[in-house]
Design goal:
With 256 residues, this protein is mostly beta strands. It contains two helices and 16 strands.
């Protein structure tokens, strides 16, 4: 994980490290997928392409990198092949000087000569909506009186539901019911917003809220809003601890 301080090799306004494969808000960085490809080695090969495909400037050339544990990968720009490359173990595939054109960036992964996976990056439209969900299932259900937390993530999406990778809309969180708001994050190493602020700009189109559980059962409702976009909310049930749960965890009343 990234952490506060040591922004080497950068300087102010950066205030976080850049060493992690996961940012300070818990969102995976590109390098995360290199590790997953070569050390988890999923049976269906990993395939990850970057950067995004949302550039507002005039057509220009840029390098495209792919991480995969497949035998080979092929890059397409608007369905036009840019060539196939063999994957070298513990390395990456790179196409230099790829001409940007709005549309789609697609990578097909091959194993044994057969296409087995693909990833697509679409040029998105303007921010049109917010999507709210529980991040990685953390806190989909809380135990009352156990100092549980939920991670609530919000994505800024276009009219087709694609995350807008350069969106920076300010998202405000509100918590009602038997829980409490604890803080926010977005992973931006140069973001100076107080971590306890309920309002935080999205970074790469995403923002995270940490919600604390309470001592009574019921439903915690988390609402996210942003100027010009329709508010969204999610319900988090908070139930009585199951038998034995208090003895195992809650008796120490952990302070998270």
């Amino acid at each position: 994980f990234d952490y506060k301080g040591e922004p080497t090799p950068y300087a102010w306004p950066d205030i976080n490290s850049h060493f992690g494969i996961i940012d300070i808000a818990g969102f995976p960085k590109d390098r995360f997928f290199w590790y997953r490809a070569w050390f988890a080695q999923p049976e269906t090969p990993e395939v990850w392409v970057f950067p995004h495909w949302n550039w507002q400037s005039k057509p220009f050339n840029l390098p495209i990198w792919v991480y995969s544990n497949a035998d080979a990968v092929e890059l397409f720009v608007n369905d036009q092949s840019q060539g196939k490359k063999t994957m070298t173990q513990y390395s990456h595939a790179e196409w230099s000087g790829v001409k940007y054109a709005p549309g789609s960036l697609r990578v097909v992964a091959y194993k044994g000569g057969q296409a087995v996976n693909q990833i697509i990056r679409n040029t998105t439209g303007a921010p049109a909506a917010l999507n709210i969900s529980i991040k990685d299932g953390v806190g989909a259900q809380l135990m009352a009186g156990c100092a549980d937390v939920a991670l609530v993530q919000v994505s800024v999406v276009d009219s087709n539901g694609f995350v807008v990778p350069d969106a920076s809309n300010v998202v405000t969180f509100d918590v009602s019911g038997p829980g409490s708001f604890l803080g926010t994050g977005n992973g931006d190493p140069a973001c100076h917003v107080n971590d306890k602020s309920p309002a935080r700009p999205a970074w790469h189109g995403r923002v995270l809220a940490v919600v604390g559980g309470g001592v009574s059962t019921g439903v915690i409702r988390v609402t996210a809003s942003a100027p010009g976009l329709k508010p969204v909310s999610i319900a988090i049930p908070q139930i009585a601890p199951t038998p034995g749960w208090h003895e195992f965890w809650c008796h120490e009343n952990p302070q998270l």
